[in-house]
Amino acid sequence: MELIGDSSTGVNRINGLWATSNIIYKHILGDIQNRLEHISVLYGMRPPSWGHNMFKWIYREGNERADRLTWLARTRNSYVTFHTSLIEHASKTKLDGLRGFFDGRRSVEGCAAGWCIDLCVHGTWQLVAEEAFSLDASASVMFCEMFAAQRLCMAVEHILGTLSSKQLTHFFFLGFASSL
Questions:
Q1: How many CB atoms lie within 10 A of CB 34?
Q2: Cα 43 vs. chain centroid, distance in angstroms?
Q3: Given strand 79-82, what is the order of strands in its sheet?
Q4: Paired sense of beta strands 55-57 and 110-121, if any
Q5: Do residues 23 and 29 lie in contact, with contact meaning Cβ atoms separated by under 8 Å?
Q6: Are strands 2-5 and 55-57 parallel, antiparallel or unpaired?
Q7: What's the pTM?
Q8: CA atoms of 36 and 98, how far apart (whole Å)
Q9: For 90-128, what is each residue's pLDDT tens digit?
Q10: Alpha-carbon gap, residue 63 to 57, rounded angstroms
Q11: Which domain of life is it from (predicted)?
Q12: Can you tell me the distance from the alpha carbon of 138 to that of 176, in angstroms, rounded to the nearest whole number?
């Protein structure tokens, strides 16, 4: 499992490398870290390679889908979609991996965030869920990023919870595809 964002500050805070004194951020970070622990223990999920974190930083250019979702939400087109048929299909076969992208932005159009989740089945990545949502105009960029990461973790938990226990056991023992 790999969760990807383009805010190095946000990703480093989530991974516990950088501290914050902001009480709101601390609350969100604590929730994210508790969810990651839950996902790791209950579902046997791990990063794509040992010694790495589940949250990964990438350049903004590599986060185009999540960035597009924040743009949609800033223009007042909020939505959430779970492609249940694809999730159901993934529950009946070998799951090779899960990756999510998140983004949060603040601009003159407003504050917004978005995330998307792909599942890899038989070596093919498929979009299975995405959300674009607006936030209060007073939200900081960091709050938008943190809230997007938190909602992404919630969605990952939801998707993993819908997969059958047989499929997850198979995933746990086979490990994660190295083709990320």
A1: 11
A2: 16
A3: 55-57, 2-5, 95-107, 110-121, 124-135, 79-82
A4: unpaired
A5: no
A6: parallel
A7: 0.89
A8: 13
A9: 888 878 899 999 999 999 989 999 999 999 998 999 999
A10: 10
A11: Eukaryota
A12: 40
